[in-house]
Here is the input.
Amino acid sequence: MLSLAWQTVKARTSGFIGAFVAILCGTALVAACGILMESGLRGGVPTQRYAAADVVVTGDRTVRPPGGDVMAFEHASEQPTVPAALAAKIAAVPGARAVPEQTFPAVVVGQDGQPLASKSSYGHNWDSAVLAPFTLKDGAAPKPGEVVLDSALAAESGVGVGGEVRIMTRSVPETYRVAGVAEAAGRARQASVFFSETEAAALFGRSGRLSAIGVLGADARQVEEVLAHDHVTVSSGADRSAAEFDDVSRTKSILAILAGSFGGYAVLVAIFVVASTLALTVEQRRREFALLRAVGATPRQVRKLIGVETTVVSVIAGVIGSLLGIGVSLGLRAAFARIGVVPDDFALSISPIPLVAALLIGVGAARLAAWSASRRPSSINPVEALGEAAVQKRDVGRVRLAIGWVLTAIGLGATLVPLFLGGQIGAAIAVSAALVLIIGLALTGPRVIGAAVRVIAPVLARSFGVSGYLASANVLKNSRRLAAAVTPLMLAIGFAVVNFYSQTTLTAAVHQQTERSITADHVVTGVAGVPAEVVRQIRGGTATSLVRTQVITASKTGDSVEVQSRPANGLDATASGMVDLGVVSGSLDDLRAGTVALGDAHASWEDKKIGDTVEFWFADGQQAKLKVVATYEHDLAFGDYVLSAADARAHTTAGMDSAVLVKGADVTALNDLTSRYPGLRVTGRVAAQDRSTERTQFLLNLVAVGVILGYVAISVSNTLVMSTAARRREFALLRLVGTGRRQIVRMMRTEALLTVGLAAALGSLVAAVPLAVLALGLTGTPLPAGSVLVYLGTLAGAALLGLVSIAVSTRLSLRAKPIDTIGTRE
Here is the structure.
C-alpha cells in the first residue's frame, strides 16, 4: 500500500500541492508556538550580576492553589522577597557560602534631575558584589554616606574616586561620596550602585527580608534539600538570569502564557484549514476512487490508500514545516521585542521537543482529516460508482449537519456570556464564540450557501447574460464547491474583525469608565513611580496614593481549579473624594491595611458580602486573607479588587506609588513639591490611566492575530487556486461547445464576486453578533468601538485575495488548448 501511495503522490503532484502547503504552514506555526512556550521555561539572557554564583535563591513567583492540577498555576508579576534567616540555613551546607543581596531603585541624577545612566540603575549592598564578581578597579569599599559605582556608570557620570554624585532612591536625591569604582566581566544590562551594608538595609526598607541569596560552593540539589519546606525558588545555570532581571522573569511568564493561548488558536485554525484542504483534495479525486470501487477495491482499502497518501505528504510537509518554525519563532521574537514585550537580548531556547511535537500534531491533524474525508468515497456502492462520481452529491451527511447546527447554537449561546462577564474574559469569549460560529457554518456551509445561491442565482442569470447564466448554473449545481471557497475567506474576515474590535471596544470601555470615575483635580506621576512620602507632603487639599497592581485568584469549577491574574488597584481611605467607584455597599472610608473592596459582579460570583473574608494572592505571590469593606460597580476602571495603598505597595518590587490623586491643592505648591523629585510632574486627571499596558496588549494581539491571518490568507489562496484549477476539463468542454474564452473569464469573475460577497456577508455576520453583545455589555451600545476603516480594509483585503486567486488560476487553466485539456485525467 505504501508503494502504491507513493506512486500516486508522484503521479499526482499537483493534486497534493494544496494539502502540502496547508500542512507545511500549519506545522511551522505550531512549531513556532512550541519554541516560544519552551523559551518561556528555558530561555533568557546570560546572567551577569550572579555570574559567579553557583545557585541563586529567590522567592517563589509561581502560585499553585491547593487542589489544582499540574497546569493550574499563575506567575506573580512582582518579585517576592525571602527571609534573611534562610542565609544561615544555606550556610550550614558543607562548603557553601551564602551571600545575602538587597536590591532597590537607585538612580544617579545630574543637576537638572535627569538620570545619567543610559540603562536601568539599581542599588545593592556591597557584600553582594562578589556574586558577579565585581572587583575594585580603584578606591575602597563604601562606608555610610559613600558608594561604589560600576565602571560604566562612573564614566557616564563623569566622576571618579573622591567625587560626589546625587542618587535618588525612594526619596529626594541625596549626595554621596564615591569611595570606589568596580568592574565585572562582560557587558552589563543594568547599572549598579553599591552601598554599605547598613545603608543598603535602610534603603531596602524591608527588615528581615532579602531580595535574593547567592550561593557559592554548593549545587542546586544540596540547597533544595536544605530549603525543601520553604516557599522559594532555587535557580542554577541559565535560570539565574530570571532571578537577576525582573524583565526576563516577566518575559518568560508572558511567553509561556502567550504561546499557550496563541498556540491553542493556531492548532485549532491549522486543523480546520488542513481538514478543509484535504476534503477538497479528496473530493476532486472522486472519479478515481469510484473507479477503484467499481473494479473491486474494498472500502477499507480505499480508506487505507487515502490515509497512507496523506501520511506520506504530511510527514514530508511536517518535517520541512517544523524546521521553518524556527524562522517563524525568530520573527515573532523580533516583533515582540519591537513592541516591548520581550527584551532585545532575550534568546529563544530551541530544541527538538517543540519541532517533534509540531510534526506529530501536523501528521495527526492530517490523518484525522483524511479519515473524515475518506468516509464518503470509501462508502460508494460499486454498482453506482461511476454515476455517483459524475454528479456531485447534492447534500451533506446528517451527522455533519447535526454537528454543525449544534456548534452554531453553542456559538450563539456563548455570545451572550459578555453580558454577564465583562473585561478581558468577556472579550476572549467573544473571539471564541466567533470561531465556534465559523466552524459551525463551515460544516453547514453547503446547506446555508445552497439556500443563499437559490435566491441569488436567478438574479445573476438575468443581470449578466451568458456569463451570469453559466455562473448561476455552476453555483446551483456545485454549492459544496462554492462553500469550500467561501469558508476560508469567511474565516479570515470573521477572525480579523472580531479580534480587532473586541480589543478596541474593551479599551474604549475602560477609558470611558476611568474618566468618569476619577474626579481628582490633578495627578502626580513619575517616570519610574512616585515615592510613597509624596502623598504625605501635599498641603492645602486632599490626596490619595494610587498603586496599580495585580492579584491572583483561584476558583473551583467542578473538579478543577481555575487560576487567574486580575488587575487591581491600591487606594487610601481618603480616596472617596477623588474617585467614584460606584459604591454599592459599604464605604471606602473603611479601606485600611488588611481590608479590600470588591467589584460587585465579582463579589456576587464569589458570594462575598461586607464583613466576609476573601482569599487570594498579592502581586508578589504572597497569600492574602482580607476583610471585605465595600463593593462597587466600576470594575473596568479599577479591576475586581481595590486594596489599601499600603498593602498594594508592600507587595511590589519598587515599593512606590503609581500616581498620586490630588483635590483642592494649589498647583504652584504642587509644582514646587514635585520639583524636588526628579522625574515627577503634575498633570490632568486623565494621566491616571495607564495606557502603556493597553497599547502593549493591543500590539501583542495584533502581531499574534497577524501571523494567524497570514496563515489563513495562504490557505485561502491555496484553496481557491485548487478549486479553480480542478475545473480545467470543465473549461475545455465549454470552449469546445462554443463558449468564448472571455465568456468563461467573465463567468469566473461573476463566481468570484459571489464567493467574495457571501464570505463578506457571513464573515461580517459571524463577527457582528458577538461584537454587538460585547459592546452592549461593556458600553451599553451595540456598536463596537474602533475605526470603520479597519473593517473596510479587511473586506477589501479579503476581496482582493479572493478575486486575484480565482482570476490568476482561471487564466492559467485557459492557456492550454481545449482539445488537449479535455483528454487529461481529472
User: Anything to note?
Assistant: The chain has a mean pLDDT of 80.
